[in-house]
Specification:
Layout lengths: L5 H13 L6 H7 L4 E10 L5 E12 L5 E8 L4 H17 L5 E8 L7 H15 L8 E5 L5 H15 L23 H13 L10 E5 L3 H12 L3 E7 L2 E4 L6 H9 L14 E3 L11 E4 L18 E3 L8 H10 L2 E3 L1 H4 L2 H15 L5 H26 L3 H18 L4 H5 L1
Parallel strand pairs: 3-4, 3-5, 6-7, 6-10, 10-11, 11-12
Antiparallel strand pairs: 1-2, 2-4, 7-8, 8-9
Bound molecules: nicotinamide-adenine-dinucleotide.
């Protein structure tokens, strides 16, 4: 694990990128701090009649390029450092993809598995009651993140509509299709990463059947396993909070998704279809070509990075590789496709949802896939070229690419030299 806060680690990447660009000092001064972070206590009535309070946050990190955009996480270990860091990453992610957004994020410190469905609905609505003045279709647009889903987004959109007295579907993305959600949003994060790997496979020397290990088997992890398996790649290992399963011949993805749909761990499939149980910690070092961290931050760190055998790491999770692990992987020649590019398919289709809500005209699933693929390939190729030209990692290249766009927008308000000449 790193000794630094998550935000301090994230800012290392900003400094690395700035060293490759001729940008004004104002830009770094602006991007070093979150613009606005609000903390509240949500009080809800529990099913047993008692009242319980939960800490909640919403951060708008930077809005120079447009309204802030970012998911809401429900997690027992959520904290302000994590929220601000996730919002910082969103700022860069939206710039990487050239979406007209800044970066934001929200969270509630809660283990949603301890709540009944009715309590979960009350908590989701309480979040919007607390933050209705901060969010808005032109101000700050939430979306799902870890342990939140489309139904929760639907409750939240409904609560916002009741507060403002009219339907405002563009206030939140990742909604159910019937409530103004977009086709193709469900698997967009994984699909974006999948298009990226497919596009760069030849350049990476990985134009063959891949052995894939997936850490975390939620939205991102399940969809990437399904998409890659459908192309004939072998999913050799997957994990969730309870452990991992392994099969050199390839796991049966349908057995795994069925287990998750029934509320069971992937480990419950051990013994079926050649699946063997494995310690969760061992997944990072499993023999494979492609490792897909799809759980939480800091999963590949100074103590386990050396065990990675994969030639390619696709960061579907946000922040799964610490800066120390980055150096170890780079020295081994492992290529990391960084989170701000690799998992940006989610926010890109969220952007499509927002556009469709605002224009009141909806696209087909194929149109969504085609537009997503075009953007992933365009930005992935541009970052690949920056990495080649500057001789840097894909992560530094992605930050250079995004920082160039952020700097252009910040500098357009005038820099020190403009005001003193
Ligand atoms: P999710 O809640 O659907 O799934 C998370 C999964 O991670 C669960 O299967 C959980 O069991 C597993 N997990 C948690 N801790 C683990 C551990 N220590 N070891 C192994 N597995 C563990 O969440 P999600 O939406 O799939 O998000 C996963 C990651 O992807 C997060 O970092 C999130 O920020 C990122 N992400 C998600 C989206 C999206 O659209 N869903 C978009 C961009 C980034």
């Amino acid at each position: 694990m790193s000794d630094h806060t998550l935000l301090e680690d994230a800012l290392v990447r900003l400094d690395d990128a700035a060293a490759h660009l001729n940008i004004d000092a104002d830009v770094i001064e602006k991007l070093k701090y979150a613009r606005e972070t609000t903390k509240v206590r949500l009080m809800i009535r529990m099913d047993d009649g008692s009242r319980k309070s939960f800490l909640a946050w919403r951060c708008r990190y930077d809005d120079t390029r447009g309204p802030t955009k970012g998911g809401i996480r429900f997690h027992p270990e959520a904290n302000i450092d994590e929220v601000e860091t996730l919002a910082f990453w969103m700022t860069f992610k939206c710039a990487v993809m050239n979406l007209p957004y800044g970066g934001g994020k929200g969270a509630v410190e809660v283990d949603p598995r301890q709540l009944s469905k009715a309590e979960l609905e009350r908590l989701s609505r309480a979040y919007i009651q607390a933050f209705a003045r901060i969010i808005g279709p032109d101000r700050d647009i939430p979306a799902p993140d870890v342990y939140t889903n489309s139904m929760i987004m639907g409750w939240m959109a409904d609560e916002y509509a009741q507060i403002v007295g009219q339907a405002e579907p563009a206030v939140i993305t990742g909604k159910p299709i019937a409530l103004g959600g977009s086709l193709g949003r469900g698997d967009a994060t994984a699909r974006g990463g999948y298009y990226l790997v497919r596009h760069l496979a030849k350049d990476l020397g990985l134009d063959q059947t891949l052995r894939v290990a997936v850490q975390g088997f939620g939205n991102a992890g399940q969809h990437i396993a399904r998409l890659l398996a459908a192309d004939g790649h072998k999913i050799v290992a997957v994990s969730d909070t309870e452990g991992a399963v392994y099969s050199a011949a390839g796991l049966h993805v349908d057995l795994l998704t069925e287990a998750k749909a029934q509320g069971r761990s992937v480990v419950s499939t051990a013994g079926q279809g050649g699946h063997e149980a494995l310690a969760g910690d061992a997944l990072i070092g499993v023999e494979c070509d492609l490792l897909v961290p799809s759980a939480l931050e800091n999963m590949i760190h100074g103590k386990n990075a050396d065990t990675v055998t994969a030639k390619l790491v696709l960061e579907l999770a946000n922040g799964p590789v610490t800066p120390t692990a980055d150096q170890i992987l780079a020295a081994k020649g492992t290529v990391v496709l960084p989170d701000i590019l690799a998992n940006a398919g989610g926010v890109t289709v969220s952007y499509f949802e927002w556009v469709q809500n605002r224009q009141g005209f909806y696209w087909s699933e194929q149109e969504i896939h085609d537009r997503l693929q075009a953007i992933m390939e365009r930005e992935g190729r541009a970052i690949w070229n920056v990495a080649g030209e500057k001789g840097v990692t894909m992560r530094t290249a992605a930050y250079v690419h995004a920082l160039g766009r952020l700097a252009e927008a910040i500098e357009a308000h005038g820099t020190q030299s403009f005001f003193t000449s």
